[in-house]
Amino acid sequence: MARPRPTPAPPPTAPLAAELLSGPAAFFARLRQVPPLPWRYALPPVLAALLGGVVYALLLRPVVGATAQGAAAFASYAVNVFGTFFLTVVGAALMAGLGWLGAGREGRAPEVYGATFVLLPPLYLALSVLVLLSGTDLGLIRVDGAALSQRELLEAVMQSSLARVTVLLLLLAPLAQFALAYRGFLTLTGDRRRALLGTLLPLLPVLAVTALGLAPLLAAW
Known about the structure:
mainly alpha, two-stranded antiparallel ribbon, 2 strands
């Protein structure tokens, strides 16, 4: 009697981006077993960019409410959301491109950095809820009977401890991504030098782009 053939083991599958939150070491070890696919984790950056825009628009909601109404207010909100969305996408592209230059092809920078964006949506959702619940109608504030200027409104917004914490978190959140990216590059390349280059090359450009997006609030601090 012929022996039954052993069932072949299923091919390895790429981990879901959310699995990075439960164990970076296991996540990147599994990623190493599957073929490269640069757009594998393209969704987390897009989602993070959109939610980051929502947080920024909510921070500026009192300013928009005091300076615009109707269609003009809607346009201001849309510009605030899109501006942050665009700069976040630019930051993600810098991470992927400069990370690839530093870590090399084996580092798979688009996948590594794309996956690290999974850290941001939960943070941005929490910040959105907190800012939404604690919003202040600065449109009611007057100085000697005159409406506050946009600069004064921004300064009033930044008097809030929550606004300051939110701006700091938006500015420094990429640092957590770079820490995870270093772990990923080290696992995928086995080379500490390339892991460092893949992490450090995009670090300052991305922080600069992030600061540019927050410049109105940082200037009013």
